[in-house]
User: What shape does this take?
Amino acid sequence: MNVNYEILRKRMVDEQLISRGIKDRRMLDAFSKVERHKFIPVDLRASAYADFPVPIGEGQTISQPYIVALMTECLGLTGKEKVLEIGTGSGYQTAILAELAKEVYSIERLPGLVKKVEPLLNELGYANIKIKCADGSLGWPEAAPFDRIIITAASPQIPWPLSEQLKENGRMLLPLGETFSQVLTQIEKRDNKLHAIQVCACVFVPLVGKYGWQKQK
Assistant: This one.
């Protein structure tokens, strides 16, 4: 069966993003451009533009489109930022960030996902993305500081190495809380202090690492 992904992508933008208040034109253009189905296993591509998370293997998921859009919107990207992403996952969020920021540094702890994602992002022509396989809770100190940091996995606290790698007047976004219940939280760094704004309730897979969960929950 032939699937018209372009129509499904337009419907996703109209019904899942615009109808829920996502207004930023640059961001809507990015979601209209990036082919989400290419970041999803072939046997699950029928659900690529659906309004729910989709498994991508290794116990991980690609978040529903609206959550990706909401998190991206909270970052307030103008095109000049150096962004650190913790949890490359499928690479979809990474591609969206690359459309909207100057540079994207992305860390994924699972080698199997990195092996899938790196060739795909290269094939799609993203020259402003760097990926490494490591403990994301430690950040990327040699590339710091960062204007924005986005953590796409749930953490019981703000990993302090990441707070240290965030620029003054920078912004971090992460799901904070327990294993099966978190609050999407926006952190702003002013006068070397962190100020938190709660965005909404959410559920993400756990951030596994030295400054996250010690093992997969």
